[in-house]
Design goal:
about 625 residues, 8-stranded antiparallel β-sheet, globular
Length: about 625
Amino acid sequence: MPARPLSARDDLRNVAIVAHVDHGKTTLVDAMLWQSGAFRENERVAERVLDSGDLEREKGITILAKNTAVRHGGLTINIVDTPGHADFGGEVERGLSMVDGVLLLVDAGEGPLPQTRFVLRKTLEANLPVILVINKVDRADARIAEVVDACYELFLDLDATEEQIEFPILYASARAGRASLERPADGTLPDSPDLEPLFAVLRDRVPAPAYDPAAPLQAHVTNLDASSYLGRIALCRVHNGTISRGQQVAWCRRDGSTARVKISELYLTEALDRVPAETAAPGDIIAVAGISDIMIGETLADAEDPRPLPLITVDEPAVSVTIGVNTAPLAGRGSASPGERPPGTPREATKVTARLVKDRLDRELIGNVSLAVLPTERPDTWEVQGRGELALAVLVETMRREGYELTVGRPTVVTKDIDGVLHEPVERLAVDVPEEYLGAVTGLLATRKGRMETMINHGTGWVRLEYAVPARGLIGFRTQFLTDTRGTAIAHHVFEGFEPWSGAMRVRPTGSLVADRAGSVTSYACFSLQERGSLMVAPGTEVYEGMIVGENSRADDMDVNITRERKLSNVRQSTAEELERLVPPRVLSLEQALEFCGADECVEVTPSAVRLRKAVLDGKERARQRARRSRGETE
């Protein structure tokens, strides 16, 4: 039978904005909202309004995909703002399943980076048309023509079709709210005073939502939200048919079963708000309530003729950590010592049991399809697998702010056995480094078994390096990298694939200073120990045996007495009045602590403190284990 002709809704466009981290996606959405009249002129609206979470604002990145609706010239544009970091790739893949076209933003100075490649590869796999936006054309170091050429090369590298490579190009300054089809000179603003050329290209080049007028209802669940009043809310893209509030529909579950449910509430998006609606038509992005256990990837279909849509698939995890209950001596103690409290103002610990931790991890699986939680040999510890260190650190930080106490192990890579050969994940790393630090960076990556693939000198004093590096070589890489380059270089990486195991690797050349007893840190002890390495605790901090209090300057660990006090007597010494000058301690964030800890170390995470500790706290037992390992190697 010949296929039935499809109809289209010409009053609607669904588009996703994808880009590398910090290339201006959320800023561009802000400008589109303002110029479409979504806000009053005197309305107080925060910058990067879609980055609504505390962590998103603190880190300056988008973590969760969000959608908004812009109405312009009789056209409704549903915009999905996606994360630019590959660790949150599950959000990108879900966002692309909701739209019919993509705005690809590329920085006019930095050009395409590894995560630009990642989001573009996902777009081309979904066979979506692309509109290229060269953003930040007013940067002093903009090189527009070179960046456009690099984008064409990237499309060719990713095997784009002829239709996909014939993309329109806009030149924009999202911060200034201007875009043009005419290429400006490097470092200057576009000639258009507003974003009208962008709106025109969206209308002309993004396909209108197509649907089969004779097909029954099909709505794909692409994201989840929650409300204290409505319960779980499912965000859906309507592919065929219409859906109404109060309607009985078929809920097609992941396991293949079907159940009849009622749509108790139905919402459409206007600007940043969800407004109640009676019906929704094909192409609409809606929010529905009334289904308590619905999951991402499932389908709402016609009750009499249910036709489920394909489940959403995401890339498999590459990095894992163990997360368990807090077993340290200070568990449940709550308050932090001076200098310990990390950023944020979380509540005190109220959730310390294994049951509460497991329930929270299970809830995370509902809305995060790129995570996996596996059991371990211990009933109070679980292995959590994700895309990368950042995604796992964000999960732990979120739980910390919700009042959980946790013990988190060192991140490790997820290996695979392919044809009897052990394979490990490999990342594509791009580094922009000043010329004077080129040797330091190449030496650092050589010890981590990095393989240089390209090196480009732009003639501006900066060099662009591209490496293929085993993922385990990048665990703990950023801290040492920033130290060696004095904080001037920039590095970004994205998952590339699996390659055969590359052998043993020593990524941390220093050991730890470990407290050998419980007590309170004294300035007298710190003064004598700071010559041995850099300390991570301040005087007055409460410590326990096995807690890591600093980094040793040598490769082995050292047990130290950091609670030692000056013995007072009535005999004056010539040095008694000497001033003890202490170097300020290194206060590690959660991400830095996860990078720092070694194979036999872990991180104690509480709402008020982040501490490093040995997995085995007793010093004598650690010595016995070292002796057994040594005998095993020499026998």
